[in-house]
Amino acid sequence: MSFMLSSALRNLPVSSAWAAGAFTRSLSCSSPFQAAAQPKTKKTLGKTGVKNVVVVEGVRIPFLQSGTTYADLMPHDLARAALQGLLTRTSVPRDVVDYIVYGTVIQEVKTSNVAREAALGAGFSDKTPAHTVTMACISSNQAMTTGVGMIAAGQCDVVVAGGVELMSDVPIRHSRKMRKTMLTLNRAKTLGQKLSLISKIRPDYFAPELPAVAEFSTSETMGHSADRLAAAFGISRLEQDEYALRSHSLAKKAQDEGLLQDVVPFKVPGKDTVTKDNGIRPSSLEQMGKLKPAFVKPYGTVTAANSSFLTDGASAMLIMSEEKALAMGYKPKAYLRDFVYVSQDPKDQLLLGPTYATPKVLEKAGLTLSDIDVFEFHEAFAGQILANLKAMDSDWFAQNYMGRKAKVGAPPLDKFNTWGGSLSLGHPFGATGCRLVITAAHRLKKEGGQYGLVAACAAGGQVMVCALRRGQEQQGWSCWGSAILPVIQTSLRHLWLPPPPLVLSLFPGAEPDPPCLSPPVRSCAEPQGPP
Amino acid sequence: MEAVPSSSRVPRAGYACRNISTSSALQNRTHVSCDIKGDVAVVRFNTPNSKVNTLSKQLSAEFTDVMNEIWANEAVKSAVLISSKPGSFIAGADLNMLEACKTAQEVTQLSQDGQKMLEKIEHSPKPVVAAISGSCLGGGLEVAIACHYRVATKDRKTVLGTPEVLLGLLPGAGGTQRLPKMVGLPAAFDMMLTGRNIRADRAKKMGLVDQLVEPLGPGVKTPEARTIEYLEEVAIGFARGLANKTVSAKRSRGLMQRLTDYAMALPFVRQQVYKTVESKVQKQTKGLYPAPLKIIEVVKTGLDQGNDAGYLIEAQSFGQLAVTKESKALMGLYHGQVHCKKNKFGTPQKEVKTLAVLGAGLMGAGIAQVSVDKGIKTILKDTTQKGLDRGQQQVYKGKVKKKSLTSFERDSILSNLMGQLDYKGFEKADMVIEAVFEDINVKHKVLKEVIPAHCIFASNTSALPISQIAAVSKRPEKVIGMHYFSPVDKMQLLEIITTDKTSQDTAASAVAVGLKQGKVVIVVKDGPGFYTTRCLGPMLSEVVRVLQEGVDPKKVDAISTAFGFPVGAATLIDEVGVDVATHVAEDLGKAFGPRFGGGSIDLFKLMVQKGFLGRKAGKGFYVYQEGVKNRSVNSGMDEILEKFRVPANPDVCSDEDIQMRLVTRFVNEAAMCLQEGILSNPVEGDIGAVFGLGFPPCLGGPFRFADSYGARQLVDKLRKYEAVYGSQFTPCQLLLDHANSPSKKFHQ
């Protein structure tokens, strides 16, 4: 701690460090007034004594529907391709990387630490340690925040975080009975023992055990839960189809306009180079309307067309402490700020995490919903997104279930997933989190926004939200004022463990503009003064 | 009828529709309402000021009215029946309405009215969909199966069933005729003869409902409110689909089901089924319950002679059954059970959140088992690791068996259980229930040293007086008896014993815990043997005498089960345990003197000495072997019985006399409990005897039996036996009073 403090002090003028600290404190007590009085000021969202963590670059290989071009590969192949893409794009020297963290959901048994296998194959130094995390659909968010934690704690300077999922191939096991027989067979000494064991095998021993697509605790599949959620909020089939169509149309537009710069090409051995996501397929409402419900039959509303599809893909992201990035001559794309993990009832609120997490992270950052320029929410199901929007816009829900006085409000759609989302781009469980963050960063830059909010829901009823601030453009200090705060709220529905809410904030650096600092300082010092 | 004005405005159906809804609003209906949603009429049941909807006269009349309007309204193409109460579709017919009927004809008339109404629904040209959430029982189920389609919420609260048989009745509104066609003959018999509740998912598999709706979580309304709204939306969708023929009400049947149906269409197969079912019913009811046999007869008539004959005999049998004394007894038990599910002491000041159970034996573990799944943190304490392990395993097994639980639910329930050997955490316990062997020192030690000031100490003793246990306590107002029955998870009764010093709040707490555990609770005063043990004592003593008179244990069992006891009297002693019986018999003998005599207690003592302790030892009157169903009489007993043989007096040893000797002693002692104020009312006496001791349910309990058999006749019998055996049969004053004034009844 003292090391962190002193290093922060060493790098900053003392006065500004104090000012920023006071500023931060004042935010929490007077943020509503402040937001109303001067929207979009130069809040950096940094925190005293905590290092700034920046995103230098993020890439992903094209997300493909499972069973297509990546079908014959293994998960670490995809992860390796993403890592190589990152190396190529950033030219970061391999030995600078202190640590690698990857997220994945369905683990390939042979490569249970897929981070390490991929890193070795991608040409990272074999001296760089790597570990794999899992937290359902927010696994790569977890990888990212793990990296943020390491940097903020002063243990690392450069971390690669990412995620990978290969749904074309999942482990299918022998039945428990068969496994037990086979394991006992290993220990059998005589031929007689072996034969007697083998003779006990019955036809039902050969029935395979498929990985469950369902929540372990409730035995309910996610699609089923999504359908119930949509029904609970009264979201119609048409609304869901319209939203899905929007996602596909926007993704198509973004793809056509070349906005999806995070995609790196991947030369698949024995096949052509893949350069584009292949799940984007804008259809028509008529065609979508013809599909039968996929989960709640025959009257449900969630169909194949308004759900995210099984996807293969991988992503990777280079994050550093701000000083290190600047020292190495990188221009940060975004500052990772506050983030929050929440979890709730895995049965009825499995996919409602973003609603719970958004107000929390906004409060933590001292922002309101209207301050956010860019929203990137994980689209597990169209019905889930719409249910969350409705819940966020409901005072009743806020009061009765979230213990809040009032609703946080629904994000305006013109700022919401405007380059498509998981419904259209695809959702490789472990890799989506990084895509959301880097997309938010790119959109902030493109649209000139300051703050972004990212959210995703995950299995087990968990959610991660992360706040980002847009990165420095050219001349260091002066641009830092316009921070990018994408709050990443990831609610992973598929594969979560409930973590305690984590908050991590990074100190953004000096505040360049004294006039904008002084009013809050004063208001803090003289709380009784005239307004 | 509104039909007239609306049909005169045929071209303007929409207008007519509006007209109708206005006029119906003017009628001020209180039980049934109707909204028109597009071309679908939504009929809502809502019995005012009640948790459940019942088919009362008023509700039926309003329902008929509403349906007539719907049929007359051309803008309406289909209808949905739903309840405004999320927890109850229709819970059955209004029992008060049935009980108010004086004659069988009146009841038959009620049944026929119901049949007619439901027949109209079945043949309605506009499809009718039942949207079921909550209890759909008895008449409610009959309404549902008369509809063309059924949608039910897949909720724990949604149960379907025909519990009429449990009240000594049969489904009297066409249920006996429709159910076999809907779910097949075997399943229909199973439902109607057992009265079991069927959960929604099972009902779907059986073909009893067509669609399930999963309950919803919170949205912008409460889960309950939104779920029932959603159920309505889904049902409306199906109603519309049925009306425009995009949905078919025909169910796809599995191969097995089709084969069964085919077989059941053959008369000789049906005859076989009737025969098998009938012999099974005979075996189980010993012919003491008329309803099951009537049900078989009615179903048979319907299937063999057609609907009209079926409906007729159904209505007639319903009428006949409703006035039988069995039905009256069972209804009395039903009301008694409702009475005993209420806490007459009010809400306790402090809810029991942490419960400690001393002793992890059968009883202790059983008490823990029924507590943990109600969210009560439960400490299970024993003195040895082995005993504790056994107890924990018992709780675990009890939960595993419940197939309705997912492994996750089971795990989270079991997380409420803490097994331990020390008294750690007792300082946080709100209540301690001791279930250790009858050693007063252990109880005193815990009472004096372990428990915190606010904690209630409850003893599960079946014989030790509570006041004696309370004697050492500084806070005797916090001491109470909670007498559970083994096996705790199966036996519904809990007998709570209060002393003079027990406070109201302590009693309220104990009753609240018992009710939470799902028990039927009776509260009695302290005294030797309380109520249940005390009634059982003289009866068991008489059993021993009968055995001593040379009656074979098998014969004793046969005689007592023929009277309606679920367990034979000799077997009962084996189940209780001969050592326990000896112990109790000695205690009660000391307290009450010769009245509790009869059989020789030395016979018990010799049995104990020989190790014939009953089922737990593998030998008692019978020999118990794992996996052997037809147990044989323990030949080692011959010698013992021979040794204690007494001469039998043929005047009082016919089968009927033996039955009456057992029962009159039971009833006499029960009456004495009421006379002495141990019991506060005859209702609890009946409930305690039936649910705790297996007193024949068809007789409704000792007090109901005294009423129906006649106090005079009962006293005559007692006097007859008194002449032979002496004071053990002397009728108590209360019975004599009743015998002397025929208008006096225990149950009015």
UniProtKB/TrEMBL annotation, chain A:
<keyword id="KW-0007">Acetylation</keyword>
<feature type="domain" description="Thiolase N-terminal">
    <location>
        <begin position="53"/>
        <end position="323"/>
    </location>
</feature>
<dbReference type="Pfam" id="PF00108">
    <property type="entry name" value="Thiolase_N"/>
</dbReference>
<protein>
    <recommendedName>
        <fullName>Trifunctional enzyme subunit beta, mitochondrial</fullName>
        <ecNumber>2.3.1.155</ecNumber>
        <ecNumber>2.3.1.16</ecNumber>
    </recommendedName>
</protein>
<keyword id="KW-0809">Transit peptide</keyword>
<dbReference type="GO" id="GO:0005743">
    <property type="term" value="C:mitochondrial inner membrane"/>
</dbReference>
<keyword id="KW-0276">Fatty acid metabolism</keyword>
<comment type="pathway">
    <text>Lipid metabolism; fatty acid beta-oxidation.</text>
</comment>
<dbReference type="Pfam" id="PF02803">
    <property type="entry name" value="Thiolase_C"/>
</dbReference>
<dbReference type="InterPro" id="IPR020616">
    <property type="entry name" value="Thiolase_N"/>
</dbReference>
<keyword id="KW-0472">Membrane</keyword>
<keyword id="KW-0999">Mitochondrion inner membrane</keyword>
<keyword id="KW-0808">Transferase</keyword>
<dbReference type="InterPro" id="IPR020613">
    <property type="entry name" value="Thiolase_CS"/>
</dbReference>
<dbReference type="GO" id="GO:0005741">
    <property type="term" value="C:mitochondrial outer membrane"/>
</dbReference>
<dbReference type="InterPro" id="IPR002155">
    <property type="entry name" value="Thiolase"/>
</dbReference>
<keyword id="KW-0256">Endoplasmic reticulum</keyword>
<feature type="domain" description="Thiolase C-terminal">
    <location>
        <begin position="330"/>
        <end position="467"/>
    </location>
</feature>
<comment type="subunit">
    <text>Heterotetramer of 2 alpha/HADHA and 2 beta/HADHB subunits; forms the mitochondrial trifunctional enzyme. Also purified as higher order heterooligomers including a 4 alpha/HADHA and 4 beta/HADHB heterooligomer which physiological significance remains unclear. The mitochondrial trifunctional enzyme interacts with MTLN. Interacts with RSAD2/viperin.</text>
</comment>
<dbReference type="GO" id="GO:0016507">
    <property type="term" value="C:mitochondrial fatty acid beta-oxidation multienzyme complex"/>
</dbReference>
<dbReference type="InterPro" id="IPR016039">
    <property type="entry name" value="Thiolase-like"/>
</dbReference>
<keyword id="KW-0012">Acyltransferase</keyword>
Automatic annotation (TrEMBL), chain B:
<protein>
    <recommendedName>
        <fullName>Trifunctional enzyme subunit alpha, mitochondrial</fullName>
        <ecNumber>1.1.1.211</ecNumber>
        <ecNumber>4.2.1.17</ecNumber>
    </recommendedName>
</protein>
<keyword id="KW-0276">Fatty acid metabolism</keyword>
<dbReference type="Pfam" id="PF00378">
    <property type="entry name" value="ECH_1"/>
</dbReference>
<keyword id="KW-0456">Lyase</keyword>
<feature type="domain" description="3-hydroxyacyl-CoA dehydrogenase NAD binding">
    <location>
        <begin position="355"/>
        <end position="526"/>
    </location>
</feature>
<feature type="site" description="Important for long-chain enoyl-CoA hydratase activity">
    <location>
        <position position="142"/>
    </location>
</feature>
<dbReference type="InterPro" id="IPR008927">
    <property type="entry name" value="6-PGluconate_DH-like_C_sf"/>
</dbReference>
<feature type="site" description="Important for long-chain enoyl-CoA hydratase activity">
    <location>
        <position position="164"/>
    </location>
</feature>
<keyword id="KW-0443">Lipid metabolism</keyword>
<dbReference type="GO" id="GO:0070403">
    <property type="term" value="F:NAD+ binding"/>
</dbReference>
<keyword id="KW-0511">Multifunctional enzyme</keyword>
<dbReference type="GO" id="GO:0005743">
    <property type="term" value="C:mitochondrial inner membrane"/>
</dbReference>
<dbReference type="Pfam" id="PF02737">
    <property type="entry name" value="3HCDH_N"/>
</dbReference>
<keyword id="KW-0999">Mitochondrion inner membrane</keyword>
<dbReference type="Pfam" id="PF00725">
    <property type="entry name" value="3HCDH"/>
</dbReference>
<dbReference type="InterPro" id="IPR050136">
    <property type="entry name" value="FA_oxidation_alpha_subunit"/>
</dbReference>
<dbReference type="InterPro" id="IPR036291">
    <property type="entry name" value="NAD(P)-bd_dom_sf"/>
</dbReference>
<dbReference type="GO" id="GO:0004300">
    <property type="term" value="F:enoyl-CoA hydratase activity"/>
</dbReference>
<keyword id="KW-0809">Transit peptide</keyword>
<keyword id="KW-0597">Phosphoprotein</keyword>
<dbReference type="InterPro" id="IPR029045">
    <property type="entry name" value="ClpP/crotonase-like_dom_sf"/>
</dbReference>
<dbReference type="InterPro" id="IPR006176">
    <property type="entry name" value="3-OHacyl-CoA_DH_NAD-bd"/>
</dbReference>
